[in-house]
Design a protein that fits this description.
Layout: E1 2-5, H1 12-21, E2 27-31, H2 32-37, H3 52-71, E3 75-79, H4 87-97, E4 102-106, H5 110-118, H6 128-137, E5 148-149, H7 156-169
Parallel strand pairs: 1-3, 1-4, 2-3, 4-5
Helix pairs in contact: 1-7, 3-4, 5-6
Amino acid sequence: MIILTGPPAAGKTTVAELLAANASVPTVHLTTDLFYRAIRTGFVPPFLPAAQQQNEVVIAAIVGTVATFAGGGYDVVVDGIVGPWFLPPFLAMAEQAELSLSYVVLRPDLDTTLSRAKQRVGDELKDVAAITGLHQAFARLGDLEHHAIDTGKLDAEQTSEAVKRAVDSAAYRLV
């Protein structure tokens, strides 16, 4: 299992699609956005403090889904904003199911992130203050700092290759 995370517009979905599509074993690309978009009434933007309970429920649903796919023999690439504060449920599930868990943070610089966000279409998050706040949340990862990859000058293919190397190295493994 790989958690591919970082701030909005870091390239997570594009890279996760490449990783899953080019995998040599059966692999699922699980985007966390689908779980949030499934909330039709009572949705709270997940970056707001009032969303804490909602976010915990969504993370529990994601962890359960990952466990089901992994139990069925699939590798899983989780694509979404999964900060270190949401790792405990993933860690517990991975340990219980005896799964390896790699944590990779895509972290372009703020200017690159905001530039990419401006190019987004549809319902994708474009709010500068929210993106800046989420970027700052991934700026200091403490003990997980070595899990960050500076992707500011990399295209999607280069980032995908960097992630593959990171996961293959086992240096990004938590379990």
